[in-house]
Amino acid sequence: MRLREPGVFTVDVAAGELSGAATRYRKTFGDLAGLYADEAAFRRLLDERGADAVAYEVTDHKPSSDAGDMIIGVTRMAPGKVGAEYFMTRGHIHAKADRPEMYYGESGHGLMLLESPDGEVRTVELRPRTLCYVPPYWIHRSVNVGTDDLVMTFAYPADSGQDYDIIAKAGGMRRRIVDDGTGGWTAVDNADWRPRSAALVEALYGEAA
Ligand SMILES: O=P(O)(O)OC[C@H]1O[C@H](O)[C@H](O)[C@@H](O)[C@@H]1O
Ligand SMILES: [Fe+2]
């Protein structure tokens, strides 16, 4: 049996990264076209910051993509809004939909926005030392509802994969996280959202249905 070597990494909370991790994934504002409700505000943001400005960045350790192995890393998200809508990640369901994930708040104030295949919605607030469990089959997206960088450590099974189309095909997630008018957050309906067909929901659940 050829074993992998143990790894040790440092969560650099101030830098918002996993020091020593080999891979880095960056999403710029230019990558996030179509995500936000207020398109004019989105164009203004691109003009002000430039399409290449980093919206969020992930540093992670991906030892393999084997079933039973694990990917660990750190996400850092900038604070801000597009119109009333707080900055968020693209969001996904795992390509192997029955794979879970955990997120641990390191700094900042965030939310995990979750949506089940048949359109149930949950929000979990993330603050330092909050551990959020994302169960199998839930679409998930992080939202920075604070005024500082949101930094989270995460871990998920190495064979999970990410499917982004599930959100795009539904016209986004069912709810949008917006400023409540006093600097807090509230969830509002996304008028563009369309329910998934029963056949698609069943296909996602596969043999577990
Ligand atoms: O994949 P996105 O929806 O763009 O979110 C960015 C990242 O969020 C989390 O940190 C996940 O664990 C990463 O695997 C993911 O890549
Ligand atoms: Fe995930």
What does this structure look like?
11% of the residues lie in helices and 40% in strands. With 209 residues, it is mainly β. It has a single domain, classed as Jelly Rolls (Sandwich). The strands form 6 sheets. The protein has a 6-stranded antiparallel beta sheet with strand order 3-4-5-14-9-12, with no helix packed on it. A 3-stranded antiparallel beta sheet has the order 11-10-13, with no helix packed on it. The radius of gyration is 17 Å and the shape is globular. The mean pLDDT is 97. 6-O-phosphono-alpha-D-glucopyranose binds next to strand 3 and strand 14. Belongs to the archaeal-type GPI family. InterPro entries: G6P_isomerase_archaea/bacteria (IPR016758), G6P_isomerase_prok (IPR010551), RmlC-like_jellyroll (IPR014710), RmlC_Cupin_sf (IPR011051). Its EC number is 5.3.1.9.
The CATH architecture would be Sandwich
Pick out the low-confidence regions.
none
Main sheet: strands, sense, barrel: 6 strands, antiparallel
Give average pLDDT, whole number: 97
- Helices, by number, come to 3
The CATH superfamily is known as Jelly Rolls
CATH-defined fold name: Jelly Rolls
The number of E-state strands comes to: 17
Q: Distance between termini?
A: 36 Å
How many structurally independent domains? 1
Radius of gyration: 17 Å
InterPro entries: G6P_isomerase_archaea/bacteria, G6P_isomerase_prok, RmlC-like_jellyroll, RmlC_Cupin_sf
GO cellular component, one term: cytoplasm
Organism: Plantimonas leprariae
EC number: 5.3.1.9
